[in-house]
Structures are given as C-alpha cells and as structure tokens.
Design goal:
The protein is an alpha+beta fold. It has helices spanning about 1-25, 35-45, 95-110, 135-150; strands spanning about 50-55, 70-75, 80-90, 115-120, 125-130. It has a 5-stranded antiparallel sheet, sandwiched between helices. A hairpin with a 2-residue loop joins strand 4 and strand 5 (about 125-130). The termini are far apart. The model is unreliable at about 5-20 (pLDDT under 50).
Length: about 150
Amino acid sequence: MKRRVALVASLALLLAGCGSGLDAIHGSPKATPTDFAGLTKRFAKFNLSVNTVVSGDAGCSDQGLAPMAISFTITGLGENYPLPARLYRFRNDASYTKLRATVDTCAAEWVTDPASLLMIDATPYVLVLEGATDQAFIDALRTSLYDAAGN
C-alpha cells in the first residue's frame, strides 16, 4: 500500500513538473482583450464615468463598422463635461490591420472639430474621442485601453 501511495505521489510530482516545462517551451499565453464592461471598470479606477452607451453606433455611413462600434460619453478628472467617444473593437490583430483605416474615414464623418480629435490605438481597439484637453484624462484613457487590450 505504501508503494502505491509513493508511486502515485511520484507520478503527480512528475506531471506537475511537465506542465511547467511545457510552459517554458511554449511561452505564456497571450492576454485576451477584455469586453466593454471590463474596459469601463478600468476607466472607473481612474474615476472616469461612462454614460449614454449605444452598441452598434459607428457614427458614420460605413455599416461594416457597426458591429465593432460602441458610442458613449465619458467624463472625469479634468474633463467636467461629457465628451463623445466611440470604441471600435476588432476581432483580432489581422482584422484590426485590415480595417484600421476605415475608422479614420468614419471619424471624419462624426467629429465636429478635427483639431480636437484624439485617437488611441491598442490592437484590437481604436478609441476615438473628441474634445479632450486634460492630459491626466488622456493618460488615464490610454492606460485603461492598453490594459484592456492586454498590452
């Protein structure tokens, strides 16, 4: 009986060691980007508030972007008034690379002041915002988006 227990314990230790050896060979898995709810939680850590959320609102005539788009307003830190924003979330890096330029064309349709346009890329996301002037606010957006993307 003691032999069986020792054998089972030895096999368990051996198998546990194999897992860590395989991890070293294959590397760590790539972080998976979060969903919009996860992103808003990251915004909240910086006391940013998201409101008026509309899924599928690309803000332009390109209906191909609608499934990837969420419009919302955001405020906080030095931005006291809700600013219009859109998040475009692509399926993967290949989709992001293929369709990224369409976001620029789309933003040109809905942004009212091109000089106040802010675009933050963190594949598979593109965050487009109009009117942000507070650097701490912009830094919080960038940090939140990079974190949500797994960067």
